[in-house]
Amino acid sequence: MYKKYDKSRFSPEQEKISISEFRCDYQRILRSPYFRILHTKTQLIPFPHNHNLRNRLIHSLEVNEIAEIITERVNNHLLKNDLPTIDLNLIHAATFAHDIGHPPFGHSAERSLDNIMKCFGGFESNAQTIRIVTEESHNVTLRTVAALLKHKNVIPLKREEEANLIKGYYQESSIFVNKILQTYNQPVIEEYIIELADDISNAIYDIKDMVGFFSRNQFANILNSNTILSLILEGITSNPNYKNIDNLERIINCLFNEIKDNFLEDFLSGQISRERYALNKIVIEFIDSLEFYINPAKPYYSKIQLPLHSSLKLAILIQITKICFLKNDINLKFEIRIDDYIKRIFNFLFFDNHKNRGSDTNMRQLEILDHLNDTEKARITCDLICQLSEREVINFVEKEKDLKVFI
Predict the structure, then answer these.
(1) Which of the given ranges, 104-113, 132-141, 223-232, 242-251, has the highest pLDDT on average?
(2) Where residue 406 falls among pLDDT bands split at 50, 70, 90?
(3) Whole-angstrom Cα distance, residue 87 to residue 22?
(4) What would the 3-class secondary structure string for the chain be?
């Protein structure tokens, strides 16, 4: 499918130009304010003043690079079967859009907003992404949204106070999502590519952030602690996908030692060349191990997956991040502070405190909230928070500066 430019805009000698719809999707995402603010949101460690730590824009570029390599491998298999290949513009659009629903401070703020939104349809980052890309201002194709639709269930409008975060899509997105599910009643191949590229990026490059945050020696000491292996095993066996595997403990033990000897030894060497080699090697190792399941009748329903060995190795790397940082006392203190930040900024926007600012012209855009019911108002408040950088939230809460972004 192609959109052609109006011929009248070009002189006769100019060549005809056409752009694929996926290219248009890609351009819309690049122009999106939600995409352009990703560089102001940290990826793992909520420390926005440290530029050595990755932000969500850097993460999106990493995911895009990995997804491109995976797509090249998939396309080779499709070509061998004389099947149409995947448009890289679709991959670019989906990888650069996949995190635009994240609020400042990532998953910590996601949990805080979800607690606030339990009576208003919940908050979940992927659901927020789907909400954004289906807005009229983005208006991306069904196939691109299908690549981003990780969870196929609707989030309940109201939940019990003690209920945990539910992954899915918002009720107000149901009409659009139903269109996708009617058109694509199975996951499309691009969904597998984006999700796997995201997992690989998180598993590998989050470790790079932890080394930058803790120091090599401190991180190595955590890895060599007596409890690390038992905690990894506990985390993996709680996953129903791995529960019934024979000799799981022995396999994880072997893979953990392999990761330490073949990846972390080079990565923690302190030599930039060895660090880069280790990162590139393990990324390609995961991609080379991929298993392909081509659907000749409907190639867009083809599948890719990691074999058990590689899948467990990826799970171990993810558990290392959880154990070394996410469950670390340092991060738990961060989470308490972030929860307070998010509650304060939400209350300021939702309860119309901006009205007390008199002639503050920077707050005029917030008048949109004045004419909505509570559910709509809460959802728009979440949208506004997702347009804030972490520094803007910190400045507002700690230094009592006015918000300057709603002009």
Answers:
(1) 104-113
(2) very low
(3) 8
(4) CEEECCHHHCCCCCCCCEEEHHHHHHHHHHHCHHHHCHHHCECCCCCCCCCCCCEHHHHHHHHHHHHHHHHHHHHHHHHHCCCCCCCHHHHHHHHHHCCCCCCCCHHHHHHHHHHHCCCCCCCCHHHHHHHHHCCCCCCCCHHHHHHHCCCCCECCCCCCCCCCCCCCECHHHHHHHHHHHHHCCCCCHHHHHHHHHHHHHHHHHHHHHHHHHHCHHHHHHHHCCCCHHHHHHHHHHCCCCCCCCCCHHHHHHHHHHHHHHHHHHHHCCCCHHHHHHHHHHHHHHHHHCCEEECCCCCHHHCEEECCHHHHHHHHHHHHHHHHHHHCCHHHHHHHHHHHHHHHHHHHHHHCCHHHHHCCCHHHHHHHHHHHCCHHHHHHHHHHHHHCCCHHHHHHHHHHCCCCCCCC
Whether residue 228 is predicted with pLDDT greater than 60 in this model: the reply is: yes
Task: State the pTM of this model.
Answer: 0.89
Closest of 97, 200, 196 to residue 145, by C-alpha: 97
- The CATH number assigned to the domain with range 1-327 reads 1.10.3210.10
The domain ranges of the chain are 1-327, 331-399
- What pLDDT digit, counting tens, does each position of 305-329 carry? 999 999 999 999 999 999 999 888 8
335-371 per-position pLDDT tens digit: 999 999 999 999 988 886 555 444 343 454 566 666 7
